[in-house]
Amino acid sequence: MAEKYVAYVGTYTHETSVGIYVYDVNPDTGLLTEQSVAPINNPSDIINSHDNKFLYSIADEGVAAFKILENGDLEKMNQEWVGGMRGCNLCVDSQNRYLFVAGYHDGRVTMMKLNEDGSINGIADGIFHQGIGKSVADRPLYPHCTCVELTPEEKYLCVVENGLHQIKIYEVDYEAGKLHLADIIRCPMGSAPLKMKFSHDGQYAYVITEMSNEILVYDYHIIGDRPDFENIQTVSLLVGVDEEISTGTNIKFGDDDKYLYASVDGLNAVCMYERNVRSGKIEYFSHNFISGDYPKSFAVLPKDKYFVSLNHDTNEIRSFTIDKKTGHSLMQNPPIKIAKPNSIVIVKIK
């Protein structure tokens, strides 16, 4: 049986889009073909369960759960309030016990209980961050949670705190459904960390910053039953380019974690970095312009032959080849028109 992949794309629905768009994905051509759409209000971030049976989404009303059907279409199960203002980022543990929500507007991290059937069972725990970050451009920064990411062994939850220039590390009590602060990574003041990803081997963490336009590289271990993050490298997102007004937007791996990818607004490019898998350190490889404005997010398609860019302000998805020899990417296929795309996940359904 041939493998089948689908892409789920979350959008802002205040213009012409209506929810989460489902696309059939051809990883050999980079072509995405619209299959269906699941109506929901402003699904600005989405995440699939590790067994690919369920999809979870931010919504104006809180968070929503969908069942992934055999053909990849979505069937809504339920939705629940998160105990604060609308969230902006999600993650879920591998056993599908809890859904974690980052709240940008109110600086809240929320832990949502999941039922065995994948539906959401309400709030287990929630914590509002407090404090004031360094003023940048005469603008004081208040707590803004922009990313939730479980550590590879899933003992800790990393909450990227964009406003306080920190990453708060919470120990996850799965039995009691509680979060306990275990440590704080203090990023450079004024950096505004935004998103965080771990390498496939789980030994290194990579953080893209919004204001300093950098990738922060951390060595990660558990030492004496405590999380330990050591900053081993800081790399600019703007190597070899003259673009002062830029901001990092997202960071991801493909199947091959010898390369790390980062999207940059202002520069309007997806940058590639070669990665030393032994040391965890990265080196700038290339930047590839996305022929549009504001690459809010992107996805490296299975097999690492193509990436697709969600060009938020020009209302489109564009696909590009990946060239690991020269770094030069070529645009492929006609652009897909879609209003205000925000997030994307690729799911193998068979």
Automatic annotation (TrEMBL):
InterPro entries xref list: Cycloisomerase_2, Haem_d1_sf, Lactonase_7-beta_prop, WD40/YVTN_repeat-like_dom_sf
Gene3D superfamilies xref list: YVTN repeat-like/Quinoprotein amine dehydrogenase
An example Gene Ontology CC term for this record: cytosol
GO MF terms held by the record: 6-phosphogluconolactonase activity
Domain of life the protein comes from: Bacteria
Pfam families: Lactonase
PANTHER family: 6-PHOSPHOGLUCONOLACTONASE, 6-PHOSPHOGLUCONOLACTONASE-RELATED
Name of the protein in question: 6-phosphogluconolactonase
Taxonomic source organism: Pseudobutyrivibrio xylanivorans DSM 14809
